[in-house]
Amino acid sequence: MPAISVTNLNLWYGSFQALKNVSLDMQERQITALIGPSGCGKSTFLKCLNRMNDLVGGCRVEGSIRIGETEINQPGGDLSDLRRRVGMVFQKPNPFAMSIYENVAYGPMVHGEKDPHVLNGIVEQSLRKAALFDEVKDRLHKPALGLSGGQAQRLCIARALAVQPEILLMDEPTSALDPIATAKIEELSLQLAKEYSIVIVTHNMQQAMRISDRTAFFLLGELIEANDTETLFSHPACRKTEEYITGRFG
Fold first, then answer.
1. Is residue 250 part of a domain?
2. Cα 10 vs. chain centroid, distance in angstroms?
3. On the chain, which terminus has fewer CB atoms closer than 10 Å, C or N?
């Protein structure tokens, strides 16, 4: 069973249709990369997977999104539980204006965990999974806003992992980072894919080739082509895909 199965997904912002009849399966414990030019719908699609688009006025969605056995678009669904199961890391690192420890403990505390010993374990484990613990273990109670950009993004990943998600969504997580920090996030993503299903939006086609198992190409709100990454980049089935990956537009 796919980790996420999307069928006939359509989305409108007012009268503008941003996604057009998109169907795509994303597999468990794999990295699925979403590529395409700016404004093609890939970030909009990503935000459908944990219903972040619900926060946008005038947004209307039709179609099916199943996470495991759960249809997430059904009325009355538990959005808090959905966003626990499906964590998200944004383009720009956005630590809370609190300590490193509190950033990671925040989610579990919101979900009812109060035992300090349990919280200590969650914080350490999450920071270790995000390859950050050794760098910050002596300043856990110092402000998170003092971290470098790459460290702050790994803190945001740790914060998402702290509530034990099944899926991690990443919206251009390295676009604001330098090459060294980018390489760390890519290496971390490959490690995390051993435990989590990851969907990443990227403008960087080399990044998609380096880290993803499958790649989906979006254009003007449509899913043009999806395949295993090596096949899509070496033998694209559609002319539009070939033109995009060879740099003729985008």
1. no
2. 20
3. N
